[in-house]
Each structure stands twice: as C-alpha cells, then as structure tokens.
Amino acid sequence: MEENLFAKLGLSEDVLKAIDLMGFEEPSQIQTQAIPVILEGNDVIGQAQTGTGKTLAYSAPVISLMEHGPHQVQALILVPTRELAIQVNDELVRINRFTHFTSIPVYGGQPIDRQIRALQKGVDIVVATPGRILDHIRRGTVDFSHVRFFVLDESDEMLNMGFIDDIQAVLDTLPAERQSLLFSATMPMQIRKLAQQHMKPDVKNIVIAKSTLTATLTEQFYFEVKHRDRFETLCRILDVDEPESAIIFCRTKRGVDELVENMQSRGYIVEGMHGDMGQNQRQNTLKKFRDGNLDFLVATDVAARGIDIENISHVINYELPEDAESYVHRIGRTGRANRTGIAYSLVTPREYIILKQIERVTHGHIKRKEIPTVEDIYEVKYKNVLTKVKEELEKNDFEKFKPLASELDDEYNLVDVAAALLKISFENELNFDYASSEKAREVRQSAGETRLFLNAGRMDKVTPRDILRFLCDNSGFTRNEIGHIDIFDKFSFANVSSSAADAIIASCAGLTLCGRPANVQVAQKRQQRY
Fold first, then answer.
1. Are residues 359 and 507 in the same domain?
2. How many degrees, rounded to 5, is the angle at CA 185 between CA 180 and CA 187?
3. 193 and 66 in one domain?
4. Which residues, in sequence order, are CB contacts of 37 under 8 Å at separation 6+?
5. pTM here?
6. pLDDT 10s digits, 116-154
C-alpha cells in the first residue's frame, strides 16, 4: 500500500481517516500548499481555478483545528449560491465523519423557521449565502461571538453577484480575533481591498498558476442518470458503442473494486488499478491492457497517471472527478495521435453543478446524450450476429456441420433451426440481462417497492452480490424481485417488491450475513434519507 500523501500535511488523525474513506489518494496543488499554512494559524488568500479542490483545502485544516465542547458556531463559511452551500456542506459531512462536528447550510428559498430551529439546537459550522445569514443576524437567531474561523469561498463570484456590501456587514459582526481564509479564482481590486481591511497584515498569499485546460480532439458527452441506474447505464453504453479499449474512471479505490466486481460478474473482461495495489500488480494489469488481453481498465486518477497507451477509443467517467484538471487529464487518455476520441460522463442531478464548473474552466461544451434504450442495444447485437453468420457463409468452411443440419432438417423446419441458433448467438452477445431488468423494474413499479434495512455494510466487507445472494437464496425469490442496493459503512439498504418484502424478512430471520447475525427489517422513515 502506498503512503497516504495527505498524512504529510499535518491534518488530524480523524480527518485523515475520513479523507482515506472518501478515497482520495493525493492532494491537489492548492491543498498541498494551503493546508500546512492554515494549520499554522495564518490568514490565507488562496487563488486557484474553480474545481481544483479548494473546499477540502480549507475545510480539512479548519476541522483539524476545531475544539470539541458545547455546540456553538466556530466556523462561518460564506458562499455565493444555494447550490454551492449544499455542495460544501455535503463535503463537510463527509470530512466530519469521525470528528462529529455539526454543520448546516443556510440559504434563501428555504423556510427560515426550519433554519432557526436548527441553529437554536446548536451547530459548529455554518455554510451560508450572504443575504440569508444577514437575515438571521438581524433577527438575532445566530450567535457568532465564538467564531474562530471565517472562510470566504468563490470571492470573485460574490463580487459579480453584488454581495460585497453584505459581506462587509457580516464581517462587522465577527470577533476580531479569528482566522480568515479567502479563496477565489481571480482577485479583483475590490476583493483585494476587502482582504486588506479584514485580514491580518501578514496574510499568506497562495497562487496556483492557471493552466490551459483543453481537449480539442475528444468528443465529450454526458448522460444524466439516477444513482441507482449508474451501473446499468454503463453496461448499455458499452454494449451499444462496443469500444475496443476503454478506461473507466472512479473517484475512489473502493469504487474501483466494486465496479470491477460488478462488471466481471456480467462477463466483461476488466481489471482495476488503484493506489492500494502493489507496483507489480499494477504493471501486470497495465501490460494485459496494453497487449489487448483486457477490454476495459477501471482506475483512479492517481493510478492512471503515466498511462501512455495508443488506440484507447473511449474514456468513461463513471464518477466525475473533484476538479476540472483531473477531468482534462482523464479524457486526454483518448484522442491521441490526431485521432478523435470519445469521453462519456455519467452525471447524477447532484453532480450537475460539478459538470458546469468543468465546462467553465475548460471553456468547452459537454453535450447531453440520451441513455441507450434496450431496443438500441438489441439492434446492435442483431447486426453483430448477422455479420458473423454472413462471414461464415462466405468462408464456406462448414462442411462437417452439414450432417448435423440434415439431421435437424428431418425433425424441424430449418428456418426455425436457424432462428434458434441465432437466438443462442444473440444471447451470448449480451452482458446485461436487459429484458429481465426491464421486466423486474415494471413488476416492482406496479407492485410498489419497499426499502429494507440490513445491519451489514462495508466494514463487514459485504458487497451487492453478497446481499443479492443472501436475499434470493434464503427467500426463494429471484433477482427480479430485488431492486437497487445501497451499501454504507455499517449498514445497507435493498429495494424489493412490496409483495415480497414480508416473506423475504421472515425467511432471513435468524440467519447470518458475512459472519454476523442478520437483522433485516423495513427501513424506518428516518433512514429513508440514505
């Protein structure tokens, strides 16, 4: 296992554990330079392009420096939009996994009463848009007297949106003794003046050189997917496009392992590469891929660094990267030697904001593409079967099989025989049972779905395949009754047909799942958010 490079930056053990669980292998430039300086207690002005990992650059050290005690606001993070407030708060939740500091996004368009109740309960970090947090300040519903850290994120966007006066008003309410962190893609004069007025004279300036991010020879598309349909969408893309050689990118090491396992179970010739694998293992995998013994390589950004292989027709972002630079490096793996390559990205509604950031930084347009239908896949496979049959007929090298054909001719119509053989060949072309999947989806939708809770998760080394087998083998139901499966650290969820839910629960009582007594029950309302 390679050393975690984040460990060299001085972050707390709990934060490092969270970063490792998030699957990040190597800090970005802004993270490498800003984190140690923030940990030393300095005010910082960080200038780096949007989508270069600035959120982690300030949130990881701030959380490392925060102190446990009564829940009172220790850190205020101002952002320009509600979408960014939600995105930053989501990242804080992941980083706070082991530190247990609480955070809340505060923005307009959401009932203020709900925010007031959350603030009154006590919170450690507030992520807010300027206008809405000013409302709370004027109402006296938020107390900033204990704020130790102030972060102004996307400062130039704040200026463009006319928030400069609101920011001044918020800053006037904060304690003078605080650490201030300002992050921006550009540094307009008004932002510089703001920094001079409200930051310490010895403020540290960190500037990450702006790089030119383009990928002119690569056609770029994205598919809008639901999280539960991500894997089937990938299968549909592969079965329609039939790339000869493709790299599929995941954000985390765990994501690589899970995707490889799922793809292999469907018959794809694929292996994975990530930082936890030994150098020899990675080199062997890369050699297989280069020699054409693998159709697909699933990798993290760090593991794929230095890969120089010609004739990669497709790069697929199974998960979008955290920053635009990584995106460009990924898709640059195709479209080499003056050949046009194709880059696909699978994007959930929550990831759409990241896609827009990538477009802004790269000055490119990523076109929306419709997910292939089952009919699209069948048409491609039909053509493949017919092409193979015609090629064999033209070779005229099937004399030894004519006696068998004559024997079948005595009992059956040869058109029926040909159709049966074509059906067998066609089914061998498919890696995913789309007909069964479509039928199962229709059955579950008509009967309704019930979400089941299972008390085993990643820490028990449980996989989607384990859960599927556990539920089907013990209940007697087929996989058609089982829908989407979500696995978390300590527990999992499985959607099942409502008509089968009670029987599945009863049949699994008293059994073990991955070595522990299984608890299978209908998910409670408070668990439905997972």
1. no
2. 70
3. yes
4. 44, 204, 206
5. 0.55
6. 998 999 999 999 999 999 999 999 999 999 999 999 998
